[in-house]
Design a protein that fits this description.
alpha/beta, Rossmann fold, pyruvate-formate lyase- activating enzyme, OB fold (Dihydrolipoamide Acetyltransferase, E2P), 3 domains, 6-stranded parallel β-sheet, about 25% strand
């Protein structure tokens, strides 16, 4: 078997882990995995279907591969993942360039599915989505020194705007022993930074053990030899417990970095979103986090233009952002998704107004973030090396305060050679746009 497969993975880190699991299965089966679609006998596109922008990205990739196929540069086109799970009929009907479509449950038999497509042509496969594997050997598509660790999949929160429960099914935790075994294997292969993810990482264990088990999992991960940093993404505010904060505080490796997707600050809008809390309770939570972890980096996301959002609601959100001073923040205009409760809600906000409000909040955050970056000048922080630029004789990397692919970067010089994945103390000497500039501190 010498067929070549090109793999395009779109969307979130959870989807990326799914891709890594499938790539490993295909490689083990004897297929040649190539980095470019050109010359591929099969191109697999693992799609995202979360919001309109993600769906459009998937469609653009499918159409681009369709043109390559027409030009003879690629063979078969297989569409899998979240958008395939959600829109299989539309894809098959409206995109004749697509040879096969498969839902999430088909991931477990991806090798057999690809073989059938190569031998028989048009195919579709949609087993129960809960059959999607949560674990297994992976071929990492991240740099060698960091990797995502998916502790669970699916979601049972049922936020009014979100299609994830419809697409990926209910929340499913992996066994602690399984997650820890994978983490140990990754560390043994040279991974130094683990980024723990799930649709709701703080919910980990509730479905399987009847109680929140993220603190217990983190204590196990903290003891793994070879790991240097452990980072948490997708932590829901209602499950930030004292036990979790105490675990982070007492850890040697868990970074004081919490990704806390809040979505809004108006209690009225949060209730309409089927989320808990209001401005006062969220403020109290953040004060508690900062009391436990005074240096904690707080990342959050908000949605602008949710149905019924008034100027007063938006102003409350803007004031909340100013009051809190988030370290990292993203804002997305509300995307009206079929099948969600919010789709049929009255008082839909004009999309242009929703987008404008999002831009206003991002401009506001830019000022806050710039001030925070400039306040770092003169401080020494731990960084990880990501690359070397021979032209400027400098290194690129990230501080412990920055998650890969979503946060800012640092460029610094060093008097001694460094390798990708090295951890080094860097003194901040300046800011370029929003990225940092520095110099490695000589080690005694």
């Amino acid at each position: 078997m010498n067929e070549k497969i090109g793999f395009i993975s779109l969307g979130c880190p959870k989807n990326q882990v799914d891709s890594e699991l499938m790539i490993k299965k295909l490689a083990d089966a004897g297929y040649e995995m190539i980095d470019t679609p050109f010359g591929a006998d099969v191109v697999i596109i693992n799609t995202c279907g979360f919001i309109e922008a993600a769906k459009q990205e998937a469609i653009d990739n499918i159409l681009e591969m369709g043109q390559y196929k027409e030009d003879g540069d690629v063979g078969k086109i297989i569409v899998i993942g979240c958008m395939a799970e959600r829109y299989k009929d539309e894809i098959l009907k409206e995109m004749p360039e697509v040879d096969a479509v498969a839902g999430l449950g088909a991931n477990k038999d991806i090798v057999a599915f690809v073989r059938q497509v190569l031998e028989e042509g048009k195919r579709e496969s949609f087993p129960p989505k809960t059959e999607m594997p949560l674990s297994g050997e992976r071929i990492l598509t991240t740099p060698e020194h960091w990797a995502y660790l998916k502790a669970a999949d699916g979601c049972s929160n049922c936020c009014a705007y979100c299609a994830i429960p419809l697409i990926r099914g209910p929340f499913r935790s992996r066994e602690i022993e399984d997650v820890v075994a994978e983490a140990k294997a990754l560390a043994a292969d040279g991974v130094k930074e683990l980024i723990v993810i799930a649709q709701d990482t703080t919910r980990y264990g509730l479905d399987r053990y009847g109680e929140l088990k993220l603190p217990a999992l983190l204590k196990e991960l903290d003891a793994i030899e070879g790991l240097h940093w452990i980072r948490l993404l997708y932590c829901y505010p209602e499950r930030i417990t004292d036990e979790l904060l105490e675990t982070i505080k007492n850890s040697k490796k868990i970074l004081h970095y919490i990704d806390l997707p809040l979505q809004h600050a108006s209690g009225r809008i949060l209730k309409a979103m089927n989320r808990s809390g209001d401005r006062a309770s969220l403020t109290a939570l953040i004060e508690k986090i900062r009391a436990y972890l005074p240096d904690c980096i707080l990342r959050t996301t908000f949605i602008s233009g949710f149905p019924g959002e008034t100027d007063e609601d938006f102003d409350e959100l803007s004031e909340f952002i100013d009051d809190i001073g988030f370290d990292r923040l993203g804002c997305f205009a509300y995307s009206r998704e079929e099948g969600t409760p919010a789709y049929d809600m009255p008082e839909q906000v004009d999309p242009e107004l929703a987008a404008h409000r999002g831009e206003v909040l991002m401009e506001q955050q830019h000022r806050i973030f710039t001030d925070k970056q400039e306040a770092l000048i003169g401080r020494t922080v731990e960084c990880v090396v990501e690359d070397y630029d021979g032209w400027s004789d400098s290194y690129g990397g990230r501080t412990w305060m920055d998650a890969p692919e979503i946060d800012s970067a640092i460029r610094f010089v060093s008097s001694k050679p460094l390798e990708t994945g090295d951890f080094v103390q860097v003194r901040i000497t300046g800011v370029s746009d929003v990225d940092l500039i520095g110099e490695a501190v000589k080690q005694k």
